[in-house]
Amino acid sequence: MQVDGLYERLLRPIENQMISTVARIVHDPEDTADVFQEVLALIWHKLDRIDRHPNPHAYILRICITRSYDAVRKRARRRRREIRLDSIKAMFLPAHPQDPLEEKDRASAVRGAISMLPANQGQAVLLRAIEDSPYNVIANILGCSEATARSHFSKGKARLAKILLELGISK
Amino acid sequence: MDIKKDNNRDYDDALDALQETFNSPVPDVLEKELRKRLDGFRQDLKEHPYLSNKKGRWCYRWRGIFPFSLPLVRFLLLTGTGAACIATVMFLFLGNKSATWADVEEHFRAIPSCAVAVYFGNPYSNGHGKAQYWISSDGRARIHSGDKIAFADLNGGWRHFRTFDVKTRRETGQGFICRNILQAFERVNRFEKPTLKSIIETMTGENMIDATSLVVSDVEVSKDLLVFDAQSYDTLWNIRVWALRESKLPIRILKWHRRYDRYEEVLFSYSKEQPKEFFDPNAFEERLKDPASTEHNLKYMFLQGPWGQSFPAPGS
Questions:
Q1: I want to staple A133 with a disulfide (CB 3.0 to 4.6 A). Which of A137, A140, B154, B313 is the partner?
Q2: CB A15, CB B38: distance < 8 Å
Q3: pLDDT by residue (tens digit) across A98-129?
């Protein structure tokens, strides 16, 4: 078995998608590099399983999105602990409601809101909204049926809208 | 309808916010860094056992062929193997430690001496009481019952005995309890030291153990204990015997009547053998004459504790 052959088959076609998924979700450059390294370590560890998987690309993207999403949630938890506030609202809202949120704060608030979703819903929303992945791909990545993937996305979207509304980010 | 429209608008806003946040382009520096890591990964793949090592590759192929690679199969195999190992170990180390009543009898016979305390309750005749006796390796016994202390040489038959009263400080006739104990010893085993069977039959005055055999009631009480149960049909006594699993020595016997409010409890102590003068009626008689010996001292005269001290201690 050739190294190049395996790499070309498994990773090359989705290199860009891997990079953009991890970088966009994690956002912070330092954390992104760490998460990406973790992803590669996992791929290394599960190489035989990935190679035998009926849809290896979906498997790899699943690793990417799961790790990235975990990193976002971990960061949000850390921030909540550090600031010692009960909710994400207190963390991201301006001191006065009439003050507009800065772009940076707004992005942080949206990331915080995403981290509050259950894992499957959050991942479905990210895949659909950012990667524009079709439901069958999301289902492959999440390891569930297409109907379940739709349900995850729909519920996640509704819950996200509610959170963003509470935060005052939705118009 | 309006609510639905509002909801849809909220959802769209949420997705817009999400796309604005997450659709930012990946910075060039970061992308270069990540691509560098991918290149490194590609280089390192040569070292991966799945690709580089022939042995490793075969290992992976075997995993593919056999169902051991399936997590559930692996889990079942591992738990099954683990359970089998535990069962084997338990059988080897615990299974062969179960003992029969004959084992307990045998080990008790082999012990050179012991002390026995008997507590009994019979509201229709004697009320509640206590008796104590010690048995030596050469078949002699010393029995305490109230103020009476009896000395017997069981090898010579139960008739060779002397009884003293520590209160009157005189030799006296044998009491009811002393006589019953000696009779039981004599009846069961005329020419040897008392057996466990004779101790169980002590006080009842009836040959009850022959009525039914003892059975093991298993180890639910404790892992360290053996428990034997017996019943007698003719005398309506229940018997339970507790013995230690390791040494196979009895530690407690409880007898209770199935119809009347009567019980007997026998507790065993195992220590070093008492000195010869402890079982010697003549030595005891000498001390009995000594007015300096108190009643309490006389009762436990020549008794040696487990650490070698004389009883009663201290102050005696």
A1: A137
A2: yes
A3: 555 566 667 777 777 888 888 888 888 888 87
